[in-house]
DNA sequence: TCAAATTTAGAACAATTGTTCTAAAATCAA
DNA sequence: TTGATTTTAGAACAATTGTTCTAAATTTGA
C-alpha cells in the first residue's frame, strides 16, 4: 500500500479510537512511523484527510446501493443482509457519524456530499418500501406522509445509533449488530403483514 | 448577575453558535469583556465550564420530570406540552447534544451524569406509557419488550433530533418545534387507540 | 474607616498545533 | 548510468491555547 493510503488508514483508526478532538497530524504521522513533513506532503491540510475518508464512506455506500438496485430486496433475509452491511459501514467510519454535525460545519464539502447521500438514500428507501409492499411483506395502505416519517426514523437510526450506543450500552461487534438490527426492524414492525 | 453566571451564559451562547471546536476560554472572555485571568479565576479549567452547563441542563430536566410527577400526563394536549418543554431544553443546550459523545469521553463526570439521566427518563417514560394506557389513549396490549423499544426510539429522537435537523433541514424556532413534535408523536401513532 | 478578602486585568509561560522549508534519500525513466 | 522526479525526514516558524502569576482595584465586614 502506498503512503497516501496508509495515512488514511492510520488516521481512520486513530480518529475512531481517540476521537477527532485529540488526534493531530503529528499523532497520525508518529503512529505510522513517518515524519510530519511527509504526511503534509501527501495531505496539505488536515481537512483533506477527513474529506478523503468521507469520500471513501460515500463510495462504499454507493456500492451497497448499487448492489441493492441490481438485486432488489424482497425477503426479510435480504433486508437483514442490507442492514448488516450498512451497519458495518457505519462502524468502520464511526468517527464521522459521531462528529457529523461538527465535521459538516467545519468542512463544507462534507455537508454538500451528505445532502447528495440523503437524496440517494431517500430514493433507495422508497424503492425498498415499494418492493416489500409488492411482495406482501409490507402493508400496502401506508400513506406517503407516513412513509416519509418512517424514512426520517430510519435516517435517525442509521446516522446516530452508533452515538446513542456509545452513550449508553457501548456494545461492540456482533452484540452491537444484533441490537442495531432489532432497532431498525422495530420501526417496520407495525407495518408488517 | 455575577461574573460566574455571566461566564456560563456567554460560554453557552458561543458554544451553541460556533461549536465547541472553535470556542476557547479567551474567546469567551473577550466576548463578555473580561480578562482571561478573570475567567480562569472563576473556572480553573475549561471542563469546569462545560460541566457546570451540563449541570444546568440536568437540573432543568429534573424540574420538568418533577412537574410531570406531580401533575401526570393524561391527555394528548399535556403530552404536547411535555414535548414542547423538553424540546426547549434541548435547543437551549444544543451544543451538548451535538457533541454528546465527544463530551462524555472527554469529561467522565458527564458520562456518569448522563447514565443517571437515562434511568430517570426510563422510569418517567414507562410511567407515561402506563398513564396513557390507563386513560385509554394508548393500547393496553403492548409487551414490555416492545415498550422498551419505544423508549429506545424516544431516547434517540430526544438526544439526536437536533443533530439530524442540523445536517438536513436546519429548521429553527417554531418550525423546528412543529417537526420535532410530529416526529416524536409518529412513534406513538401505531399504538394509539 | 480601614484592614482583610475577593475580584480583576493583563503580562507571561510552556506546550501544542498546523504547516512550511530545505536538504537528503529513494525511485524512475531514458 | 545518469539526470530528473518523487518521496521523505526533520528542523523551524508562527499562531494559538490553557493556564499561571503578580499586582492592582474593588468589595466586604466589623
Layout of SSEs?
2 copies of one chain form a homodimer.
Chain A: H1 3-18, H2 25-31, H3 36-42, H4 46-70, H5 76-92, H6 94-98, H7 100-106, H8 108-134, H9 144-167, H10 173-188
Helix pairs in contact in A: 1-2, 1-4, 2-3, 4-5, 4-8, 5-10, 7-8, 9-10
The structure holds a DNA duplex (30 and 30 nucleotides).
Characterise this structure.
Two copies of one chain form a homodimer. Chain A is mainly α. Chain A folds into two domains: 1-44, Arc Repressor Mutant, subunit A; 47-191. Chain A contains ten helices and no strands. The first copy, chain A, has helices at 3-18, 25-31, 36-42, 46-70, 76-92, 94-98, 100-106, 108-134, 144-167, 173-188. In chain A, α4 (46-70) packs parallel to α8 (108-134). The longest helix of chain A has 27 residues, at 108-134. Chain A is elongated, with a radius of gyration of 19 Å. The A-B interface holds A 19-21, 98-102, 104-106, 111, 114-115, 118, 146, 149, 152-153, 155-157, 159-161, 163-164, 166-168, 182-183, 186-187, 189-191 and B 19-21, 98-102, 104-106, 111, 114-115, 118, 146, 149, 152-153, 155-157, 159-161, 163-164, 166-168, 182-183, 186-187, 189-191. The first copy, chain A, binds a DNA duplex (30 and 30 nucleotides) through α3.
